[in-house]
Amino acid sequence: MKSKKYSFLNHNKIFLQNYALVPLRKCDIQKIRKWRNEQINVLRQKIPLTKEAQTRYYYATIKKSFYKTNPAVILFSFLHNNDCIGYGGLVSINWKTKQAELSFILDTERVKKIRIYQKEFRIFLRLILRLNVEQIKFKSIFTETYNIRPVHLKILESSGFKRIKMIKNSKKLSDDDIVDSIFHEYRNL
Predict the structure, then answer these.
(1) CATH code at position 43
(2) How many domains does the chain have?
(3) Which three-class secondary structure state does DSSP give residue 10?
(4) What is the pLDDT of residues 124-157, one digit of tens each?
(5) Which residues contact 62 (CB under 8 A, 6 or more apart)?
(6) Average model confidence (pLDDT) for the chain?
(7) Where are the strands (E) in 81-127, listed by range?
(8) 125 found inside a domain
(9) What's the distance, CA 180 to chain centroid?
């Protein structure tokens, strides 16, 4: 099966060592659904995704984004030796102001291994930021991270993202567990 491509990008596959970003592959969407459901506590997602909902999202949003000059999302399968180990990209895009939100999730088993998570999140950031500098040229990429993810926050900050604000008590995980949102921004000057 031929890979989909974003029509507005000159180069759709970006490599670093044996890692790559490729436009989100349909064959990866159910793995991604599983990871999102397993890690729902660190996402804004409120309910588990069904197979049907994930398939509808792929056809209604992702597939259509490949043919648009200014898509609403630019999402990639994150590969290691051609196996999907995560996904991410740019969402909540404002083409007028050249701003977008960074999205990223890694295979749940890899997340549990701190060193692997640190290495692979850094590689993902290098790839997506390189893609932005070389092709997309957004001025600002922002993130929202819950304060229960100190490793994730540290990696963002060591990769050039600056903390810009915090919203207290932004998500309720349980009756006793309410988390804060921390926002970071990467400026492409």
Answers:
(1) 3.40.630.30
(2) 1
(3) coil
(4) 999 999 999 999 999 999 999 999 999 999 999 9
(5) 24, 29, 73, 75
(6) 94
(7) 83-94, 99-106
(8) yes
(9) 20
